[in-house]
Structure formats: C-alpha cells, structure tokens
Amino acid sequence: MKRIAVFCGSSEGASPAYIAAAKELGKTLAEQGLTLVYGGASVGLMGAVANGAMQAGGHVIGVIPDFLDKREIAHTHLSELIVVSSMHERKAKMAELADGFIALPGGPGTLEEFFEIFTWAQLGLHQKPLGILNVEGYYDLLVKLFDHIADEQFMHEKYRTMTMADTDSERLLEKFRHYKAPEVKTYIKRPEQT
Questions:
Q1: Total of domains in the chain
Q2: What's 22's domain CATH number?
C-alpha cells in the first residue's frame, strides 16, 4: 500500500473537528510514508488534508477537472497536480492511482465518489480497502444504513464488512493493512427465472 485516495468536502463543514481530522489524516499519511491522492482543491477539507500531508513532508497528488482548475480553486503547492477534462476522468484517475480509499465528511459529491468505489469493489473491479473516517459521528447514519441494507438482503454481509469505519486515522490505516477482499459478487438464477 503506497497511495491512499481521500474523498472529502470542498467545504469546511459546521464543526472545527472536521478540519482538524482532515489535517490529522494528511499528517498521518505522510508520517506513514503514504502518498495522498485527492481532488486537487485548495478549499475546505480537501485543502486541509493536503496541507496536513505537505506540512508533514508528505507527497500529495491532486486530480482536478479543468473547469474547477479555471475557477482558481486548484491547490498550487502540491507535489503533483493532474488536470483532467471531466469529473468522470477525475474519479477514474484517482481509482487508478490509489491502493486504498478513505471518506472524510463531505456532501453528495463525496458520497457519490465513495459509493462508486464501493460498488466497483463488490463487483470485483478492484480489491483495495475502503474506509470511512467517522469524525464526530458524521457517518453514524450511513453505517446504520449499511446495516439496514444488509438486513433487508440488498447486500450480503461480506460486502457490508467491506467498508471499514473508525474514528481514528491510524487505526483505520491499520485495518487497511489487514484487509482481505471478499469473493466477487455473483448471481444465482432461481428456477422460475430460467
């Protein structure tokens, strides 16, 4: 495991704890010799995680679509900034570069990025660990929703446990080191479907 992609908000959020956790995650990645891959912005939690990593001497790769780069929100002091032509290309490039994925607090964009990677993992398109840094209980309801989805049999338990959650970045990364991907999702035809 060399590179970790972080999905997070371009806003700071309501609690100062979100910014603090983003900076701490960036610092932890740098201290563990892991490269941060993220969305390339200088604002919100995105800027905080990048700054935390860089201030600790880490390597940071930003991936940003050109239309956001033109709005002057791109972080200009990264180790590397990759400018792509669309949001789809951004996600694909981040997925290609990363050996694991972490979601910090964020809005619909953060959730969309995380769910796409989660879905790809279920389908066996990658075997990389994915986790949620659950700052101040931000993702409590999402974790509860995963339980509900599994209880209602729209997700096998082996996929429910695929997403690791923790309140501490070091513990979450330790879980990543012990992660073993479940078997690929398969479908069984029932007799009435043949």
A1: 1
A2: 3.40.50.450
